[in-house]
Amino acid sequence: MNRYVKRYLIDAMSGMAQGLFASLLVGTIIRTLGQQLLRLGVNPVFQFLVDAGAFCCEGHVVGAAMAVGIGFAMGVHGLVLFSLITVGATANTLGGAGGPLAVLIIAIAAAEVGMLVSKKTKVDILVTPIVTIITGVLISVLCAKYIGIGASWVGKFIMLTTELHPFVMGIFVSVVVGIALTLPISSAAICAALGLTGLAGGAAVAGCCAQMIGFAILSFKENRWGGLLSQGLGTSMLQMPNIIKNPKVWIAPIAASAVTGPIATCVFGMTMNGAAVSSGMGTCGLVGQIGVITGWFNPSQQAVNWAVHKAEKAGIAADQIAQITQESLAINPGFVQWLGLLLVCFILPGVICWGLGKLFRQIGWINDGDLALE
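The structure assignment produced for this chain is given below.
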């Protein structure tokens, strides 16, 4: 594999996703937990959880966390890594709705420039931070806004198209994001960069779950319970060596994605109103499901922005648009919502891949040992 592809599209994106997990994602979970506990009675401890979660979700905090994750994954020197805190905060703030993509691009550029001078002078403690920060901030001022606009436009196009054509786009988004999850790239980072929420986010969750649960069930004969847990709650990326050897083992999970995606969009109207990064996580640590659930009770700012954008396009009066808030978008999920979450994320992928797996083994497309994990 080309080392630049690995460094920028695999390592850097994975690091960015981890930074998002350690800030926005965890912050959303903590804040939602605190808000739900507060409903049981006033308690300062629960309010502390709400405040702590809110701090984690601040734009500059999230940007800094992403940039540090990127630098760490790229293996940069210490002073370059710490200087990326400022670069990430600046890029995410100026990038607006498409901030994550701006952070990815600008943090990589600043890190590489910083590494050119790192440990090359006797005053490294001054030269390296100055060069890294000035490079990153300058690029952010010049480009972050436009990178963010581009990413936001693509994300909005996908989300709007999914709402207009939920069946076709449900299949497309589910299959594409699911494939990205199994490939050695970060589907979570892609969803975060595009701000993928709403119905499109729900379809993305479905596709990721189909890959993870699908491979876990499909390979149960070879990998038993250990494989079920490592793939069902870890990552389907573990199957990439087997996919390369026999691409037919990938057919069942992709087929499951194509089925569960439109079921999520057309039958249950499953939306991702939590953090966009959750859309690309599937059942990894149950992050995808937690994202859907937190979105029910505490919609993300991205979900609010998308609701406002749709309202503006529909010509709704300004005073009504002003009433669109996180509180107004929150719902009290009923039986249908919980059933849809269970069917789309767990039951249907398992059943589909179990059935197709039996068929493919009978006709010789999958042989014993083809799905064994090393």
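Interim note for the steering committee: The mean pLDDT is 91. The chain has 17 helices and no strands.
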